Amino acid sequence: MTDSPLPRLAITLGDVAGIGPEVVVRSLADENVRSCCQPVIIGDEQILQRTADRLGLTHALDGIDNVHVTVPGLIDVPLGIVDARAGAAAFDCLSTTIDMALDGSVDGIVTAPLSKYALHLAGHDYPGHTEILAERCGVSEFAMMLYVPPSDIVRSPHGLAVAHTTLHTSIASVPRLLSKDRIADTIELTHNFLRRVGCDSPRIGVCALNPHAGENGLFGNEEASIIAPAVESARQHNINANGPAPADTLIKRAVDGEFDGIVAMYHDQGHIALKLIAFGHAVNVTLGLPITRTSPSHGTAFDIAARFEADPTGMIEAIRVAAQLCQST
Fold it and tell me: CATH code at 250?
């Protein structure tokens, strides 16, 4: 660690067959990034340099620390194609950043996108970053959240946070994975996050699972049997939680400023809405960890990786939010 007042952030290159290296290099060239943190890049130094050269942004690497992590043959991985070598490197880079954050070498981590299938090909059977982070950090109560920082996109002065009760799983499995305690835990994690970003009295809306909030049991009874008791439990712990309410209108109400946070029941219930209104600005934050971790909300974008036309806004926002969270602890 240094004496600089800026937080030291470990930033992974993600899957090197995707746009991860490109958006990292473009972010390093952004003045907002340099003014909010000390970046430490975790990944293959040859790929980092080659990307900077290709973009004409070699100056972006000036003064940047790099922890070299690679696997055999990584430099030969083609852009835009799923490759086990890229999956292995992404896993090793993530593991390195987690260790660095846990031992205090860095204040937080920001991860570029990885490919779940490349992870699988490399022998790492995890649904994604979140589950790896939770396992390595030894936590059982955690959640994935998309956060839109304060902007003209949403009307809440504290931005909008949407946490997900279930993560990367099939739609068919969602009802059996929901429980009163799991929903209540996600409400509490959302409440605590909003307090960290300066929202003293968070207002949290809780989504129903079924259309029309079950229509009094006609379309399902999870609202009455599981979700409503979870909301009541949160309220008993002095959390301003409301619901369950139909997701199609609840998230619009939040965007209009009625709520600071939303708890969704499953991945696409929250992701689709947030990405429609704020694709380039939404930041993925892992809740419940003893370390700070953020990432852009987009994926590896294999289809455009070879064009070198990726928009770095999501990565820049992820770095800015990570720096803010590090300074709020």
Answer: 3.40.718.10
Write the single-letter amino acid at 307: R
**What is the total count of domains within the chain?**
2
Provide the whole-model pTM: 0.94
Per the structure block, which two tokens stand in for 33?
A: 């990034």
Please give the full DSSP string across 200-248, using - where no structure is assigned. Answer: SS-EEEEE-SSGGGGTTTTT-SHIIIIIHHHHHHHHHTT-EEEEEE-HH
| 111: phi then psi, degrees, rounded to nearest 5 | -115, 130
C-alpha span between 175 and 273 (Å, rounded): 21
Contact 62, 108 (CB under 8 A): no
pLDDT in tens, 278-322: 988 899 999 999 999 999 999 999 999 999 999 999 999 999 999
**272 and 149 co-located in one domain:** yes
Contact 109, 322 (CB under 8 A): yes
